[in-house]
Specification:
This protein has three helices and 18 strands. It is α/β, with parallel strands linked by helices. Strand 12 and strand 13 form a beta hairpin.
Length: about 300
């Protein structure tokens, strides 16, 4: 009985060479496929925004949403009719959900007003384009009309804050960003100002910080303190002064809650805004536990 003849070593080497010759192109093709998929997945999303004025925006300037960079300006040029500026933007792939109907874009500009200074970073550094996202699930879009200024509701909501609507006969000196006080402590701010649907009153939207939200109950009274300051002395009675610089310049709103506590309110609760406080409101001194302060 004879054993099978051994395979010459030269033939083994040849087989191995043939195997590697077949596997190498396959491995390279697999790597290229992975890289191609990765490139497609990471490819920026192009959109076009038209503004009336470019305000100094240049290629390379950032596009931000809620303080996070979500894209970059690629090109800036005049529109075909010379009536505006067209800005080409590349959104990061993970921010593609901004390319939806309802998303708003505006150029962040330095602004100095009686309420303070905003957009200072655009004065010291590059311009930027800010975005406010549309409703998820809306129709996809690639062309947008930029806003001339930030929308009234562009401020980022804070989790746990209380949003109330204040109805007044006139706006007075209160505007977006005006402070909201409780016992002379700054506890919130005005977020928007608009005429009511019937144009008979003014509606102001105010946000109270989460820590101070329990202070607002259904029997709370809101009043305008623009240009005046109020002392809440428990024994000295009512004392009104006119040296409240912040409320004098920026306008302001204050509120008081009765000793007999009412029921908590939810976002959107409507209050009347009095032009000045009633003297008895300033004598109220309820004990109301505040929400736990953030760490």
């Amino acid at each position: 009985m004879s054993d099978a003849a051994p395979v010459p070593s030269s033939e083994v080497v040849r087989v191995r060479r043939v195997t590697w010759a077949l596997l190498a192109p396959l491995a390279a093709a697999a790597v290229l496929s992975v890289l191609a998929v990765q490139a497609i997945r990471d490819r920026p999303v192009p959109i076009t925004i038209r503004f009336a004025d470019g305000a100094g925006v240049r290629p390379g300037d950032p596009v931000t949403c809620r303080g996070v960079q979500v894209g970059v300006v690629r090109e800036v040029g005049l529109s075909g009719d010379l009536a505006g500026v067209v800005i080409e933007v590349a959104l990061a792939r993970e921010s593609a959900s901004l390319a939806l109907e309802g998303t708003r874009f505006w150029i962040v500009r330095p602004e100095v007003s009686l309420r303070g200074v905003s957009g200072l970073e655009s004065l010291l550094g590059p311009r930027s384009i800010a975005a406010s996202p549309g409703v998820p699930g809306s129709q996809r879009m690639s062309e947008f009309e930029g806003l001339p200024r930030p929308p009234d509701d562009a401020a980022t909501p804070i989790e746990g804050e209380l949003i109330v609507v204040l109805r007044a006969a006139r706006r007075g000196s209160v505007g977006i960003g005006s402070p909201v006080y409780y016992r002379d402590v700054h506890v919130g701010e005005v977020r928007s100002v608009r005429l009511a649907d019937d144009a008979r009153t003014v509606e102001l939207t105010a946000a109270v910080e989460p820590r101070y939200a329990p202070l607002v109950l259904d029997n709370t009274r809101f009043f305008n303190v623009s240009g005046i300051g109020v002392n809440w002395g428990l024994f000295g009675g009512l004392s009104v002064r006119t040296d409240s610089l912040e409320s004098l310049i920026a306008g302001g709103i204050a509120f008081a809650t009765p000793d007999r506590l009412g029921a908590p309110v939810t976002n959107g609760h409507v209050f009347d805004l009095a032009p000045q406080p009633d003297s008895k409101w300033l004598e109220w001194s309820p004990a109301i536990p505040l929400n736990e302060a953030p760490p």
